[in-house]
UniProtKB/TrEMBL annotation:
Protein name in UniProt: Protein CutA homolog
Similarity comment text for this entry: Belongs to the CutA family.
Any one of the GO BP annotations: response to metal ion
InterPro entries found in the cross-reference section: Ion_tolerance_CutA, N-reg_PII-like_a/b, N-reg_PII/ATP_PRibTrfase_C
Keywords: Signal
Organism per entry: Pyrocoelia pectoralis
Amino acid sequence: MILHKTLLFSSCLLGLLRRNSILAKEMSGECAANNSSYVSGTHSIAYITIDTEDRAKKLAHGIVSNKLAACVNIVPKILSIYEWEGTVNEEPEVLMMVKTRTSKVDALTNYVKSNHPYTVCEVISIPIINGNDAYLKWISETVPLPDCK
């Protein structure tokens, strides 16, 4: 009886582990990568916040013109609540979503720091795991690889 319960429990646990393993692979993009030529993490989305839409447009034009990104989406009217110099602040801001090569994020960050009004500007990025192959190819064609000299 105990052996039967142990085997039943082991079978259930093994099934659960298999299901979780398959789900983890699907979520990580491993399964999709088998059907695609895209290499996970080649591109990234960088997020930048700035105080006005006009400044966001000017910064976005500079980013795209300098081939630091293929596209910048500007999302107006977000609300940011943050701590700065010991005080909690609440300010309207503009969110910029920047599609680029992961290898260009450092150059993008340096450009933004040089052209942004904030003392400490937000430039954070996350890798693109998977997506529309044609769109990802367009990013690659639009944003050249960095000079490796």
